[in-house]
Write a structure and sequence with these properties.
mainly alpha, 6% strand, 4-stranded antiparallel β-sheet, 529 residues, 14 helices
């Protein structure tokens, strides 16, 4: 006969539970015992945590710009890597004497460090207004007091390491800017020396000297024009003088009586010849020229005095001859002076032409020098701007370093210190309680459902009518003997006792879940004692 479907109405379910009560009670009883044993025997892991607030910079950003501009989350991640490094974890293990005892003798150092690293958790808190404004440091261990101390030590490590890292980053930035500033200063000095050398090398051809050169060139050209006009006039006067001298030489010569006068004329001619020779080599202010001119002047004066003395004794012919000699001497003197003036003007004109050529060359080279100077100035200005920018940043970096050293920048501040944990986080009593109670009830219900599903007997009148197609006229209750009734009563008493024991175990398991294992055990010890 095929099994009938199990009705799911409350009355039928209650009847099934009462009918198969032992199938429900025994799994529940065993589940409570297992739960209590697991709660007591499983290792208890405690957790302590501290909340650290990321306090913003105390000095306004408008006055002092912080050098450390990294994201707080990234900086916390970097600090976590440094704090959880092998060196720091070994210090913590040695300081708090972790992993000591016989069960840790065969444990390698790397395994100890990895185990400690797994027990440390750093989590960043985020909200809508700030990307990250706080973070939590948690540590798990089997000793509550030691867990609290290690957590507080880790928070101190984070705060100290953050201060050291920010100061080191600020000092490193300042040192880097200082090195770059020194390099840029050397380059600036080199460009300044190049600019100075260029100006010294091409002095007179610089752009700012163009107006001065043009004015000087105008004055030189004007001066040369004046000298050329004077030279032309001097040459005309020299030509006129030469013509007069030629006309004088064409007149018949007259004999002068008197040996002394003849000797004086001869000496005067020789002195004039010497003077003309000296003027070809020296200027008018040369001592020899001056001395010779003075001697010629004395001889001329003596000749004039002698001519005046002989004027009374000599006739008219002798007077004409003296006048002619005096005129010849004056013409020679004028010829020498004009010749000297011509040579001086020619020398001055040649010198002026050289200066004009020099200044014309300077003016022609000015555009080229201007282009080269612009290139040098452009390099100088770029390097100077970079130098000034580095200098300003260096000063800002020094102020930022002082701010970090005085702890006025962004800081980590402990908001909630780690406290002594009272309840273990492992095992999770809530999950264990729900799992054990649910498993105890689910096993019994599953067995009952399986037995009812496999049972193909007729249990209700409706099943008889549906299967046999016969109406049920009446139902006769089961007739129990005296022995059967006694056994049933005993079974009821045992079931009630078993229910009480199961409820007591359930109450104890609930107390372990609600109050904690340690507190519950302490209460039991105090109650027993």
């Amino acid at each position: 006969m095929a099994s009938q479907p199990i009705p799911m109405d409350p009355k039928t379910i209650v009847d099934l539970v009462i009918k198969r009560r032992w199938i429900v009670l025994i799994p529940f009883f065993l589940a409570m015992i297992i739960g209590i044993v697991l709660s007591v025997k499983l290792p208890r892991i405690y957790e302590a945590s501290t909340l650290i607030l990321i306090q913003p910079q105390k000095v306004p950003q408008n006055y002092v710009q912080s050098i450390v501009t990294s994201d707080p989350g990234e900086r916390i991640s970097t600090l976590s890597q440094q704090i959880l490094s092998r060196t720091n974890l070994e210090k913590i293990i040695d300081e708090f004497k972790l992993y000591r005892g016989p069960k840790f003798e065969n444990l390698y150092v790397e395994d100890k460090i990895n185990s400690l690293r797994r027990n440390i958790t750093v989590s960043v808190s985020k909200d809508r207004r700030r990307e990250s404004d706080a973070f939590t440091i948690s540590y798990q261990g089997d000793n509550p007091e030691r867990v609290m101390r290690i957590t507080n030590t880790l928070s101190s490590f984070f705060i100290d390491e953050n201060l050291r890292l920010r100061e080191a980053q600020a000092v490193g930035t300042s040192d880097f800017l200082d090195d770059e500033l020194s390099i840029m200063k050397k380059r600036l000095e080199e460009v300044e020396m190049q600019l100075k050398g260029y100006r010294e090398s091409y002095m007179g051809e610089l752009p700012e000297q163009l107006d001065s050169n043009l004015r000087i060139l105008d004055r030189l050209q004007e001066h040369m024009g004046e000298n050329q006009q004077r030279l032309s006039d001097a040459k005309i006067r020299l030509s006129t003088l030469q013509n007069e001298a030629a006309a004088l030489r064409e007149q018949p010569a007259k004999v002068i009586i008197g040996g002394n006068n003849q000797a004086e004329y001869t000496d005067l001619n020789q002195l004039n010849a010497q003077l003309e020779n000296l003027l070809t080599r020296y200027t008018d202010r040369h001592p020899d020229v001056l001395r010779l001119k003075a001697r010629i002047a004395d001889l001329q004066k003596q000749s004039q005095d002698q001519a005046a003395t002989d004027a009374a004794a000599n006739d008219g012919g002798s007077a004409d001859q003296g006048a002619s000699a005096s005129l010849s001497l004056e013409m020679r003197t004028q010829h020498i002076e004009i010749s000297h003036e011509i040579r001086r003007l020619e020398t001055d004109i040649a010198d002026t032409k050289g200066k004009i050529t020099l200044y014309q060359k300077r003016i022609e080279n000015t555009p080229k020098r201007e282009q080269e100077l612009l290139s040098l100035k452009r390099d100088y200005e770029n390097i100077l701007a970079t130098h000034n920018s580095l200098l300003a940043r260096k000063l800002e970096a020094e102020i930022a370093v002082n701010m970090e050293r005085k702890q006025k920048g962004e800081q980590f501040r402990v908001l909630d210190t780690a406290r002594l944990p009272e309840k273990p986080v492992k095992p999770d009593m809530k999950k264990l309680f729900v799992l054990i109670v649910g498993a105890g009830l689910a096993v019994g219900a599953g067995i009952i459902f399986l037995l009812e599903y496999l049972d193909n007997t007729l249990k209700r009148p409706e099943e008889i009518e549906s299967d046999l197609k016969l109406p049920v006229l009446c139902m006769v209750p089961q007739i129990l003997s005296r022995k059967t009734r006694i056994l049933r009563n005993v079974e009821h008493v045992c079931c009630a006792f078993f229910v009480l024991v199961s409820l007591a175990l359930f109450a104890g398991f609930t107390a372990l879940y609600m109050k904690g294992v340690d507190q519950t055990l302490n209460v039991l010890k105090n109650w027993v004692s």
